[in-house]
Structures
1.
Amino acid sequence: MPSEKNCDLVMSGSEEHLVPAAVDHAVLQHGHARTPELEAEVKSFLKDE
C-alpha cells in the first residue's frame, strides 16, 4: 500500500488474518481512520503469491 511515511512493512498470510493486521497497522502507525473503505482499500492491494 502506498505510504507517505515510506513504510516498508511487508505482510503475508491468508486474507482472513492479513486484512485485520494490515488495517490495525494503518490505524495505529499511520493515523488512518478505521473504516470499511480502509478495509476495502487494503483488500485491493492483496496479491496472490
Note: The mean pLDDT is 92.
2.
Amino acid sequence: MPILRVKEIRSMSHEDRMKRLSEFRTELLRLKTMVKAGGTVENPARIKELRKTVARILTIDNEPALEPKKKPKPETEKTKAKTKTAKEKKKK
C-alpha cells in the first residue's frame, strides 16, 4: 500500500510536496543507515515504499515542465485566402 497516493500528491501545493519530500528523504536516509550499520529494521518494505513515494512526488512536481508548449500555427496562403473570402461574403 503506497504511503501517498497520486491523487493526494496532485492535490497538494508545491510547498507541501517539498515539505513531505524532505520528510520522506530524511526517513529513508535513517532507515538506510540502520541497515548499513547492521541493525534490523522493523519494516524492511518501508524502504521500498519510501523510494517509490519520493519518485512519485518528484515526477508529479516536474510534470508542468515536461508538458509541450502549444505554438500558434503560422498562417498559410490558404488560410489567409479563406479568411478574406469569409470577410468579403459578410460585406456583401
Note: DSSP finds four helices and no strands in the chain.
3.
Amino acid sequence: MNNPLKEKYGPLPIVEAMIFSSENPLSAEKIASILELNKEDVEEIIKILMKEYNHNEMHGIEIVEIGGGYFFRTKIPYAPFIRKIVMGKESDLSKSAMETLAIIAYKQPITRAEIEHIRGVDSSNPIRSLLEKKLIKIQGRKDVPGRPHVYGTTKEFLKAFGLKDLSELPNIKEIKEIIKEPQLKLIGEEDEDKTSENNS
C-alpha cells in the first residue's frame, strides 16, 4: 500500500487512528490486512500504544483487548464522569437482570423457557432490559416446536465486564456472591461509590 503518511511517520499513528475510530474491537489480523503488514508487526505496534496510553497517568483513556480485538476505552477511575454524558438512563443491573445475565453467559445459547426453568420465575422483563442495554442478543432460533429465540452475550457484555473473552468469566461461586448484591454496577461505577464514601 503506497500511503505517504505511512511512509513518512510509519504505521503506528495509522494503527492508533484505526483503533480509535472503530466502533467495535479491532483485531490485529484486520489491521494487518488493511495495512498490508505482518500480524506480528501490528501486535508489536499495539504493545507500544498500550504502553503509551495504559501506563501514562496523563491519558484518561487506554487500549484494552476484548473479544479478540482492541479498542480505546475510558480508564475506570474516569468512567463515572463519561457515563453522565453518554448514558441516558441508569446502567445498574437489578438482581433479576444479573441472575438472567449469568444464566445466559454460562448456558448460551439458551431460550427464555430454559432461563425461566432455571430461575423459576418469568424472565421477560430482565431479558428485555438486557437486550436494551445490548448485553445480550438473539442468536437465532432453537430447532424445536415453536422455534423459540435463543439468547447469547455480546461484545458489549465483554466490554462492560472487562473480559477478553468468555473464558475469563468468573467461576460459579464468584457469580453466586455477585448475585447476592442488591444491584450490580458496571465498570467504573464501583469507583464512583468509593468516591462518594470518601466525601461523606
Note: The chain has eleven helices and seven strands.
4.
Amino acid sequence: MNKEIIGRSEEKQKLSDMLLSHRSELVAVYGRRRIGKTYLIREFFKDKIIFSFTGLCNENKNKQLKNFVLKLNEFSGIKTRNPNPNDWLDAFNLLKIHLKTIKETKKKKVIFIDEFPWIDSQKSGFLSAFENFWNDYCATRTDLIVVICGSAASYMVKKIIRNVHGLSKRITQTIKLMPFTLSETREFLRYKGVKMEEYELLKLYMSIGGIAEYLEHIKPGESAVTTIDRLCFQSGAYLENEYDDVFKSLFDENSYHQKIMNALANNKKEGITRNELMNELSIGSSGKFSNSLEDLLQSGFILKYEAYKNSKKATLYRIYDEFCLFHLQFIQKHKGASWTTLFQQQVYITWCGYVFETICLKHIQQLKKALKCDQIASTNYQWRNENAQIDLVIDRNDGVVTLCEIKFYNDELTLDETTLNQLRKKENEFRVATNTRKSIYTCLISTFGAKSNQYSNAILSNNVTMKALF
C-alpha cells in the first residue's frame, strides 16, 4: 500500500509553494514528539532529498559529527570516506563540496536536518556553522530547500524563528505541526481500515489525542475502552512510559516542566493563573520558571487563554494535551489496573466533561461554522461570577453574544424546567455583570444534543452535537 499524507492541507500547500519559488527556502518545522513531522517531510519530498541526517539524543559533539559524516558518505556514494571533520565549519564545508557536484537546476533539491536542537549542544559551534552554511552558500543558489526540524519547540522558536544573529529574518517558512483534529483523526483511521463511530472515536481522542504515532497502534474491531486498556494499562503497554520518555527527551530533569504539569492536573476545571501556579509550586518568579512555562506552551502541552470574573480579565493556564492529562489522571495513578473497570467510575465521567470542554476550545472554528458565524470576527473566552459559570462565550462583532453550555453525555439530553431556569439565570447574570447591549443567545454543545421539548425550544438558539466537531 502506497503511503499517503493524511490531512495537513495547509502544511502541504506551504511545501508545494516552496517547490515553485524563485529562491532557496529555509524552513523551520516544529511540534511535539510523535506528531508526524519527520513523516510529513520525508513523504512529501521523497526523491527530492539530496541529503538528510538526524541528530542524536544526549550525545556529544564528536558523536554528532561522526553521524553527520556517515550520512554524507551514504548520500555522496563516495567509496573513499570523507575525512573526519574537526568541527562543524569543516563538516558543513564537506557538505558544500558534495552539493557542488549536483548541478543547479530549476527543480528544487531538499536538505533535511531532523532533531536540529539535539545537535546544538553547549559550545558545539553547530548553530553558528549552520548560519554560515545557509548565508554563505545556500542563499546564493535558487534551487535548495533546507528543512530544519525539531521537537524541542521552545528551542526552535527562540534560537531559529526569533533568531537575532546569523539567521535573523532568514527563515522563509515556518510550520508548527499540531495534533490531528477530530476530522483528520477519523480520516487517518479510515485510511488504516479502522471504522469507528464518532462517539467511540471521541472517547479515544479524549485519552490519546490526535497524535499520529499513537493512532498508528489502533486496531480494527476494538472499542475505545479495549484500545485504551491495551495501549495504556496492560503489562508492557505501548504508552505505559510514554509521558516520562517524552519529557526526558525534551526537557532537563531539574526544570519545572513536570512540576507545572502536575500542578495544572490538580487544578483541572477552571485553569489557574501564573501567580496561582507559582504559589502551588511554592516558588517565586524566575527565568527558570518562565522558560519552563514558555516551553510547555510552545510545545502544545498547555494552553494560555482568557477568562473573566464579572468584568475582571484573567489569563489562565490548563493542560492542552489530552494524553498528558489522561496519563496524570489515570495511567500514573492506576498502574496495573484494568481500564475496563476504571472507565465506569464517577471520576472518569466527571473528567470526560472537562476534557470535552477542552476539545471544544480546540475546535472553535468548527463550532463557529456550525453556528454560521465563522466569517464574523469574535472574542472567545470563559466567564464566571459568584452565581454562574459559562463554559464558552463567543462575543461577536455583529452585536451578538453566544453563551455556550458544554455537556458530555452518552445519550440525548432532556432539558427540564430546572435546567431552563438555570440557563436563564446565566443569561441574566452575564447581562447584568457585563452591562452588554448585545443580543444574548444560549447554545448547547453536547455529544448527542438535546431532545426537542418546550424547555429546549424556549432557551436554545442552537443545539449543536459532536458531529460539528468532526
Note: The mean pLDDT is 94.
